[in-house]
Every structure is written in structure tokens, then in C-alpha cells.
């Protein structure tokens, strides 16, 4: 019936006059001229408007009476509507920060820092003002000097609390660096039976958790191969590795139940198998290290891995360590860990201030906006300038990846830092 009415109106009011095409230049709109002897185009337009009004009225009635309530399954899904929208979470649930474990030692040597305008600043206050809300600190059981021991970490943690910053505690369960290739048992625990070692881990974990009250407590550092070797070797003693983690998590729950417990794995490869193996451990967060030199240059693969891990295990995910160079030059005579073009992501992210800023912008986007349970990231080594001088052979292997340039002035990368709103 609708089409009958439309045809009647259309026939009654007549058809528009012919228009001749005047020109058709390349990439230009066509122009037309009215041919005399036919209904003028303006009149046609006025009448056409009334046709549309009546047609719309009739169309509404027709569609209302004839519409099928069942949607057509063959209609395409609007591509602009995400299938799994990210639900916003409060700003306080994110952890955006940096590891500043060496700052007490660097400041004690007289090193000073500047903002982007060249004004003298406190490094901690500057980083907070630029958008960071979390500082990560490593903890060693009994280091050779006072650095990264409990006393130094406690004093630094109090400074962070005064600045209203969150504490992310990286417990190495070693007297020195722990990483995938080195998990040395503390000297005081060597020779203990396995039951005694578990008790030592539990009591130590309780003590540091109670003393430091961390917001995140990371149990072990890059524990791909386990921790507390040889007894906690993941490959040789997988059951004992799990028992040590379980005792440590129990100690945290009993002492500081509000703290988030993180398990930390280095890289992407093998992460699925690792977190499948620790499924029975009571923890809250998955932390991954991601350095392009060692862990691949495919940021899409990183995002996919984070999303897959969070969905499979229903855990929050964070980048626990990352960094990027702002130059391939150096400021001391200590070999840098990243110093060659093949170690960075080219051409997208050159080793430049802009390349560093762009890389961190993507990391921040992935870990706060593109993965539903993404809760942030930690930049490693922000403070590691060449603080021992330009000729030091035992200086910084990281000064070209710090967040301060060779003059100790804040880099543009800090402008990219922001807490999700």
C-alpha cells in the first residue's frame, strides 16, 4: 500500500525537469543546467519535500505494523561497537611507576636532577608530579653493603609514603640480583633442610611485609627458573618450587591481607606454561618483564599475551619491568646493555627522546586501556644516570635508558605518563 500512495503522489506532482551536464573535469563535482519547457527544478524541490513528509508518515505506519520482532541474524555487527568493552576502574586501582632502587646510593654520591626547564628538583617529587603513583624497590636478604637491604628499603619506603606514593616491593629472596639465570639462595639459608627453608621463607616474608606494608609484594624476581636454587629449582624440583611459593603467599595473607601478591616472569615466551603450573598458588597479579632486546619486538604479541593470560587465569596483569633508549650514545666508559640499532624497534621507535616517549605511550595504552585487567606498568632504571662520572668503568650500563638525559634533565617521555581517568 505504501508504494501505491508514493506512486500516486509522484505521478500527480510531476517529474523534475531535465538537466544537462555542463562539465566533468577530473576530481570535480558535476554541474547542471535546467532545460526550458519542463517543471522548474526549484518547484520540483518544494514539491519533493512534501512527498518525503507524506512518505515518511506512511512508511512509519507500514513498518510499525509489519516489522519482524526477531532481528535478522545476517545483519552485520557494527564494527565500531567493541564486542568486549573495557569497563573503567578507579584511578587508585592502577599502578603507574618506576623502579628507583638505586636512588639512595646515587643521591648519597651527590647526584642531582633537574626538570625539563633545568630547575633543580627532588627526583621522587618530580616523578609523582609527572603522573606516577607507584615506586618499585628491590629487597635483598643480606647484601654485602647496606644498599637494597631492609634498613635502606624501610627508610626509602617511609619517604615514598610521605609523598603519598604506593610501594611495589620486589622480594628477591637472595643476597644479590635474582633473574632467570641466577637464583642464589641467601648465605644464611644455605644448608637448611627443605622444611627449615620453607619456615625461613615464611618468617622472612612475614617480617618484611609487616615492616614495609607494601601495596604490591612481588614474591621473587623473574622466577622463570624458580627461586632459591637448588631446592626451589622449577625444572629440577617443581613441587618444591610450588611449596615455597605457597608458604610465601600464606605468610602475606596472614600479615598484610590487603596487599596484592604478584608473581613475576621475564618475557612472553613460555609465560603460558609457567602460569599454568602455578595455578594452585594464591596470588593476585601477573607481572611480566618486557625488553625488546631480549623478549621480542612485536608489541601486538605482547598485548595478545597479556590479554590471554588475564582471561585464562582471571588475574590482573602488569608490565613489571620495561625500558627504552633515548639514544645509543653513552656518558661513561661502562658498556651499555642496549647500544646497537638491531636491539631497538625500527623504524617505529628509534633510539631518540621521541622514540622513547612513543614506546612508553604504547606500553601505557596496552596496560591500562587495551587489556581489560591491565593495571599498569613499571619503568626500570629511571635513575640510572652515569652518576660515577664520565670515565667510570664501573658506572651505569643504563644511562641511555634512564628517564633523565646525560645532563640529568628530565626527558620528554615523562610527558607521556598519565593515570587513567
Distance between the termini: 54 Å
Please give the largest β-sheet: 8 strands, parallel, barrel
Spans of at least 5 consecutive residues whose pLDDT stays below 50 are 1-83
Mean pLDDT: 86
The arrangement of helices and strands along the chain is HEEHEHEEHEHEHEHEHEHHEHE
Task: Tell me the total number of β-strands.
Answer: 12
Helical amount: 25-40%
Shape: globular
Structure description:
Helix content is 34%, strand content 14%. It has 421 residues and is an alpha/beta fold. The chain has two domains: 2-61, no CATH class; 92-416, TIM Barrel, CATH 3.20.20.80. An eight-stranded parallel β-barrel has the order 3-6-7-8-9-10-11-12, surrounded by six helices. The protein has a two-stranded antiparallel sheet with strand order 1-2. The chain has a two-stranded antiparallel ribbon with strand order 4-5. The longest helix is centred in the first third of the chain and has 26 residues, at 41-66.
List strands and helices in order, with pairings.
Blueprint: H1 2-13, E1 19-23, E2 31-34, H2 41-66, E3 95-99, H3 103-108, E4 113-114, E5 120-121, H4 123-129, E6 134-139, H5 150-162, E7 166-171, H6 194-212, E8 216-219, H7 238-255, E9 260-266, H8 271-277, E10 285-289, H9 292-295, H10 299-313, E11 316-322, H11 353-370, E12 374-380
Parallel strand pairs: 3-6, 3-12, 6-7, 7-8, 8-9, 9-10, 10-11, 11-12
Antiparallel strand pairs: 1-2, 4-5
Helix pairs in contact: 1-2, 6-7
Amino acid at each position: 500500500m505504501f508504494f501505491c500512495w508514493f506512486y500516486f503522489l509522484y505521478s500527480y506532482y510531476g517529474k523534475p525537469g531535465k538537466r544537462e551536464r555542463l562539465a566533468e573535469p577530473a576530481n570535480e563535482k558535476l554541474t547542471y543546467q535546467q532545460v526550458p519547457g519542463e517543471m522548474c527544478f526549484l518547484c520540483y524541490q518544494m514539491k519533493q519535500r512534501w512527498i518525503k513528509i507524506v512518505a515518511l508518515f506512511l512508511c512509519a505506519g507500514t513498518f510499525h505494523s509489519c516489522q519482524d520482532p526477531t532481528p535478522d541474524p545476517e545483519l552485520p555487527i557494527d564494527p565500531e561497537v567493541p564486542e568486549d568493552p573495557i569497563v573503567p576502574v578507579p584511578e587508585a586501582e592502577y599502578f603507574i611507576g618506576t623502579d628507583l632502587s638505586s636512588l639512595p646510593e646515587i643521591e648519597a654520591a651527590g647526584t642531582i636532577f633537574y626538570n625539563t626547564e633545568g630547575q633543580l628538583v627532588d627526583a621522587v617529587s618530580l616523578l609523582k608530579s609527572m603522573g606516577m603513583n607507584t615506586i618499585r624497590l628491590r629487597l635483598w636478604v643480606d647484601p654485602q653493603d647496606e644498599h637494597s637491604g631492609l634498613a635502606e628499603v624501610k627508610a626509602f619506603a617511609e619517604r615514598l609514603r610521605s609523598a603519598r606514593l604506593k610501594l611495589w616491593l620486589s622480594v628477591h629472596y637472595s643476597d644479590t640480583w635474582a633473574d632467570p639465570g641466577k637464583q642464589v639462595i641467601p648465605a644464611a639459608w644455605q644448608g637448611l633442610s627443605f622444611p627449615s627453608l620453607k619456615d625461613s621463607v615464611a618468617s622472612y616474608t612475614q617480617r618484611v611485609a609487616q615492616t614495609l606494608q607494601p601495596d604490591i609484594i612481588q614474591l621473587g624476581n623473574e622466577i622463570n627458573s624458580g627461586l632459591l636454587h637448588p631446592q626451589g629449582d622449577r625444572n629440577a624440583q617443581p613441587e618444591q618450587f610450588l611449596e615455597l611459593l605457597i608458604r610465601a603467599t600464606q605468610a602475606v595473607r596472614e600479615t598484610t591481607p590487603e596487599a596484592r601478591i604478584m608473581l613475576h616472569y621475564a618475557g612472553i615466551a613460555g609465560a603460558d606454561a609457567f602460569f599454568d603450573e602455578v595455578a594452585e598458588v594464591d596470588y593476585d597479579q601477573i607481572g611480566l618483564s618486557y625488553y625488546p632486546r631480549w623478549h621480542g619486538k612485536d608489541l601486538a604479541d605482547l598485548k595478545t599475551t597479556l590479554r590471554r593470560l588475564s582471561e585464562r587465569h582471571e588475574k590482573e596483569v602488569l608490565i613489571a619491568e620495561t625500558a627504552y633508549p633515548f639514544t645509543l650514545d653513552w656518558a661513561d666508559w661502562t658498556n651499555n646493555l642496549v647500544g646497537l640499532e638491531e636491539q631497538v624497534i625500527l623504524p617505529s621507535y628509534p633510539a631518540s627522546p621521541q622514540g622513547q616517549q612513543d614506546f612508553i605511550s604504547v606500553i601505557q595504552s596496552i596496560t591500562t586501556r587495551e587489556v581489560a585487567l591491565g593495571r599498569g606498568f613499571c619503568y626500570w632504571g629511571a635513575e640510572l644516570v652515569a652518576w660515577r662520572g664520565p670515565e667510570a668503568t664501573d658506572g651505569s650500563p643504563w644511562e641511555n635508558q634512564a628517564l633523565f638525559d646525560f645532563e640529568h634533565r628530565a626527558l620528554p617521555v615523562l610527558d607521556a605518563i598519565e593515570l587513567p581517568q
